[in-house]
Amino acid sequence: MAEFRRTGVLPLGKLEGKVPPRERLLRGPCATIECVEWIPCNPCEEVCPVGAITVGDPITNTPNLDFERCTGCGACVGTCPGLAIFLLDLSGGIARVTVPYELLPVPETGEVVELLSRAGEVLGQGKVTRTRRVGTTWIVTVELPAEQIFEVRAVRVCNG
Amino acid sequence: MRLERHPILEFVRGKRITFTFDGESIEAYEGETIAAALHAAGIRVLSRTRSGAPRGLFCAIGKCSSCLMTVDGIPNVRTCVTPIREGMVVESQRGPGKLNPVFRHRPHEAVCKEAEVVIVGAGPAGLSAAKVLLNHGIRPLVLDENPHLGGQLIKQTHKFFGSRAERAGTRGFSIADELVEEIEGEAEILRQARVLGLYCEDGRRVLAVAHAEKLLLVAAKDLVVATGAQERFLLFPGNHLPGVYGAGAVQTLMNVYGVKPGERALMVGAGNVGLIVSYQLLQAGVEVDAVVEAMPEIGGYHVHAAKIRRLGVPILTSHTVVRALGKERVEGAMIAQIDGKFEPIPGTERELAVDLICLAVGLNPSTRLLEQAGAQMGYVPELGGRVPLHSPLMETTVPGVYVAGDCAGIGEASTAMLEGELAAFSLLAKKRFEVREKIALVQRSLEKLRRGPFGERPRTGKEKVFTLMKEVAVG
Ligand SMILES: Cc1cc2nc3c(=O)[nH]c(=O)nc-3n(C[C@H](O)[C@H](O)[C@H](O)COP(=O)(O)OP(=O)(O)OC[C@H]3O[C@@H](n4cnc5c(N)ncnc54)[C@H](O)[C@@H]3O)c2cc1C
Ligand code: SF4
Ligand code: SF4
Question: Which among B96, B160, B234, B464 is placed 20 to 30 Å from B205, CA to CA?
Answer without folding.
Answer: B464
